[in-house]
Amino acid sequence: MDLSLWKVLDKLKNDYEWVDLTYELSPNTPHWIGWDNLEVEEKCNLTNSIFNASAYKTVGQYGTHVDAPFHMVEGGRTLDEIEIKEMVYPLCVIDLEQKVLEDDNYVMTVEDIKEWEEKYGEIPQGAFVVFQSGWSKRDPKTMDNFDDEGNRNFPGWGLEALKYLVENRKIGAIGHETSDTESPISSGKTDYEVEYYILDQDRIQIELLKNVEKCPPKGGLIFCTFPKLVDGSGYPARCFAIIPKN
Can you tell me where the transmembrane regions are (predicted)? Predict the structure, then answer.
């Protein structure tokens, strides 16, 4: 009997670091401005029953969550159609935190990706690419970053950058720390064309990641787990990375 996988697991648990990339799920969890807070209704507790149980009401795209292609694309795959092999990827993290500190609305460019590749090598096919902006370090109450005119301000992916990753590097998926794929400075004007593009390429994306700064630029693995929801367009996800120890 082959027990090699047990040895692999033992090595992963003992020789590598595990990083939780997920926000705790509660009514206070950061989420897109258009959604209501999670509602929790207690059904029973250990005082009046033999078990605790609660009902939870929330939109699928809440907190750290996965977006399936069907989120925006007519006929796109739903969560129950995502293959389990699509829940784990080689992890590449593009750190643009300094540029975001200088410009809240910074948009990732193709040049940013090429600069990363000059340092770390070509992004591998099937990789999960994270835009590290540092945004998850903010107080959740300030993540929308409203200006005096009531407009939101935060960084996002550029359309040409995503096209480069999909068409030239054949990546598997993307993730980011913000509540939207695209910066608000353009999303309203473009009708969310950047988010539509990645989902229209039959890729999933993960929004509102945290702790990505704890991951190395390359060499890690990311696991993105979520329910097999029939006709689901999105759902809170539990994401984590396994990375080499320093």
Answer: none
| Number of alpha helices (DSSP H) and beta strands (DSSP E) in the chain | 6, 13
Backbone angles phi, psi at 163, to 5 degrees: -60, -40
Domain extent, residue 167, equals 16-244
CB of 204 closer than 8 Å to CB of 82: yes
Residue 94 lies in a domain: yes
pTM over 0.85: yes
Q: Pull the structure tokens for residue 196.
A: 């539509």
How does DSSP classify residue 63? S
- Does a structural domain hold residue 9? no
> In the structure, what pLDDT confidence band is assigned to residue 188 with cuts at 50, 70 and 90?
confident
Residue 91: Cβ within 10 Å count: 25
Question: Per residue in 83-115, pLDDT tens?
Answer: 999 999 999 999 999 999 999 999 999 999 999
| Residues 6+ away with beta carbon under 8 Å from 83 | none
Exposure letters 109-121 (e unless 16+ CB within 10 A, then b):
beebbeebeeeee
Cα gap 21→177, rounded to integer Å: 10
